[in-house]
Structures are given as structure tokens and as C-alpha cells.
Amino acid sequence: MPLLAACGGSDGGSKEGTTSGKDAKKILPAFVAQNVVTPDIASKNGSASGFTSKLSLADLKTSVPQKLGKGSTIKIMSPFWGSPPKGDNPYYSAMNETIGVDIVWQNQDGNTYDEKLGAVLASSDMPDVVVIPSWNMGGKIPSAIISKMADLGPYLSGDKVKDYPNLAAIPTDAWQYSIFGGKLRGLPQPSPTVPGIVPFYRKDFFDKEGYEVPTSADEFLALAKEITNAKAKVWACDDMKWTAFNSFGVLSGGEKPLGWNLVDGELIYRVETEAYLEALEWTRKLYSAGVVHPDARAANQGNAGQRFTDGQVMMYNQNISDWWGKMAEQATQNKEFRISGMDIFGHDGGDPQLWAASPAGIFAFINKKASKAVIHDVLAAANVAAAPYGTKEYMLTNYGVEGTHYTVKDGVPTKNDKGNQEVLNAYVMLALPAPTIAHPDFPDIAKEQVEWQQRMGAFTKKSSFFGLQITEPARYTSLSNDFEDLEDSVVRGRKKVSDMQQAVSEWKSQGGDKLRDWYKKLLDDSGSAQG
């Protein structure tokens, strides 16, 4: 395996570059699988593992036999979607008691977290822990992580992680992705590496009308024209850009390193490929054919999932979590409702060429000014949060206190109103177990989700920079920022495909070609995470 060379030296403290090969091996925690619980469906092809059995509280295992926390008070800033509960609620109390800490949550609105994050990281009064999703890591955030967050290597590298068995069971790829500036700084939430966006369809509607699930871009368009009946306020689909990118084999967007790949000795960026333009052209065709719901034209008007459950659109794409989310939501409102996910088709009707997603999506970072005692207690908390499904600690972390926050009937745990208000967005933000899907209320959905991931995983490749946390030189960090808005304008017919070609040409001359050289040197010096 090649050595690290973060452009600017291999001392591991550089603010640019990445860490792989032997340097990463010295830093990474040992992997020790948790054998406390055996899943019903094992992970395969980068999928989550699945649980389809009924839940029995009497059979829950223990993964944290003794309290590891030593009583520190820990302030944690974390994004929160919804209304945060009061700080002295029974859920927080039970979790803190189990861990042996006093965690004080400083919840911030997840929708405007970007704005808050920059200010807090720049201040001298940073909390003990800051949770940062990967989608909030633009601009100067990565260099702030490197300069302000603690090195967890002395506590977790190699066999040291065995003090925290649930953290030791987190997949190595997720830890590799938690190395920032040559040091292990993040506590990861591992995620499946198969694509996370599913093209969903209304199975109840398809079954009733006798529609076949499309297996090519042409079939999708033809079916979409057949389904659409604007007078009856029924449109075939919502914006399908994300599915188009997958169907046409476009390199991952969002996280810039994954947008680069070595092809026949040449490094290319996603926007330079024919596949990228073809995907935009096809999505544009859907809009111009009038098969996309009119509200989707505004890009951010209304909610695609709502239009789907209302029966205004029959197909939309969204994160795989909507598979269960929509089914659970509609179970009491519309007994006929049935959601399913179609396999991503290759645009020409053949197999798709899919690209692996990042092995972790959200990280918790510890302030480097934190005392050793605080760091140990944060790790103790993360060790409870990372407990696997089927354990007492998992149930407490994800459902709260039995009787107070949830009840179990016929093997199905159900949160009450108090559970829904208090048990969300909290301790799970510190760490998660290896990717798991379990829905005791809808075991068939869990099975379908995992099997979809396994089928799609068979067509998923890792690009050259998969699994590497790369800090680009500051001068390039905003170079690609305008592409997403331009994509949306092109597919909606407000701009032409030629406008995108022009933007790509400008991107090259304004730094894209120089950034390519930087990535090429990085690959030559560091190698990939796979060696």
C-alpha cells in the first residue's frame, strides 16, 4: 500500500490532502465484529444487514455490561429537525444514567445549521462536542475541524478501541472516512455504500392499472406519458434528476472527492462526462413532455413525498428511509397505499453502472480543548449509541424507556406521543452501529429495502477516491458550487444543455484543470483507500 503524502508533507497535520496506506493503518481502530446479535439477513454487496423478526424485550442482549462514563458534564451542539424537547426529560435522564455522564444538548435547527456552524467553530467558546453532517462540510469547515478538533487516535487507534466494543464493531471504511488532516478526529455514523436514492413508485396504483415497472430510460418516458392525466391532477413523476444520474452512470455528486475518477489513466470530474449531459437531457425531456408535477418546476415548492402519498405523482426519488417512512405514515390514513422501489435501470435497458456512496454521513467531533476525562466520557456515550439492534442499549437509544416512551405489542415497539417528542435526533448523532435496517411493524419493508440494496450493490463500483476524507486546497473549495443550481435550471428548460457545456469549459479554465493536477498528484502519492 502506498504511503500518505498530504501535499505539503507527511507529518499528518497538513490541512490539505488525505491519508491512506500505511499511515492510515497506524491510525485506524482495530475491527472486532459484534456477535451479540445475529441479523436475519446478512450484509452483502455493501448493503445494510436486516432484521425481520418480531421484537421480544425478554430476549434483548446486553452490549454494554458496565457503565463506562465517569460523570463528566458534556455540552453537545447538534442539528435538530423538528422541535427540540426540554433538557430535563425522562429520555435524556435515562440515557445519561446508563452512560454515566451528564450530557447537555445544544440543539440547533438542522435546516439552517450551516450558518450556526461557521460562527461556533470560529468562536473561542466552542462546546465539548460538535456534530457535523458531511453536507455541511463546505468552505472553511474542514480546516476548522483539523485545527480545532481533538485527535482520537490515542484513545481509539489499534487495540485501544476494544475498551469500547460497540465502537470496535464500526466498519473500518467509516473510520477511514473519519480521518481529517492525518488524524482520527470523527466519530462516524456508518452508512451503506450502495446508492441511497431509490426511485419509488405507487405499487397499489401500478397493480390496479396493470403497469410494468420500466427497465430503461425510454420505457420510463413512455410509461410516464401513459400515466399522466393533468385534468385529473395526476402526473407520472416528480423531479427525477437523482435517478437519472444513477441510470446514466454519472459519478457521485455532493461530496467532491467521489465526483473524480481515474479512467484510462486520465482523471475526470463528473461534469465533464457525456453521461452527465445525457442524464440532464433525459430529465429535461420528462419536464418538456409535461409528465413532471408542475410544483416540481419551482425546484423547492411543496414536497415530493406529499404529492406521492396524495396520489398526485406515481413515481419520485428519495432516500431509502422513505420506504418505511411513507408506509408507516399511510398505514392508518390509506389502507390501500403501497410503496415500492424500482431497481435502478441502465438507461439503455442494460445493467446500471452505479457508484459507491460515502461510508459515513455524519460525524461527532470533540473539542481539542476537552480534558481526557471528557473525551473518555464522550466515547462512553458513543459506545452506547453504537449498540447493535437487538440489544437493551439500542432500544433505549432509539425508543427510550419502555412504558414511558413506547410499548411493545405483538413484537412491535410503538412510540407514544412522549416518545415521538423526546426520542429523536439526540444520542444517535454521536455514533451508530454498522448499517442496519429493522422495522418490526413492517418486516416485509425491511426485507425489500435490504434486498434492493443487495441487488443494486452488485452493480456498484468504488471510484478512485472512495472512502478518503480529502481536504481540497481552499482556493478550489467553491469551484463547483454553482453546478447544482445550473443543473436544476437546465432540466426545467430555463437554461440549455449548451449553457452547461459552457459552464464546464469555464470551470476548467478557472481552476478545474489545476484541481485535476492536484488530485492526480494526490492519487500518485497516496494511492486509494483500497491500496
Cα end-to-end separation: 5 Å
Mean pLDDT: 92
Computed over alpha carbons, the radius of gyration is: 23 Å
Helix content: 25-40%
Which residues sit in consecutive blocks of at least 5 with pLDDT less than 50?
A: 1-14
Give the overall shape, derived from the CA principal axes. Answer: globular
Number of helices in the DSSP assignment: 19
Largest sheet: 5 strands, mixed
Order of neighbouring strands in the sheet with most strands = 3-2-4-15-7
How many β strands by DSSP? Answer: 19
Can you put this structure into words, describing what you see?
Pfam families: SBP_bac_8. The chain has 531 residues and is of the alpha/beta class. Helices cover 35% and strands 15% of the residues. The protein contains 19 helices and 19 strands. The strands form 7 sheets. A 5-stranded mixed β-sheet has the order 3-2-4-15-7. A 4-stranded mixed β-sheet has the order 9-12-8-13, sandwiched between helices. The longest helix is centred in the last third of the chain and has 30 residues, at 497-526. Residues 1-14 have low confidence and may be disordered.
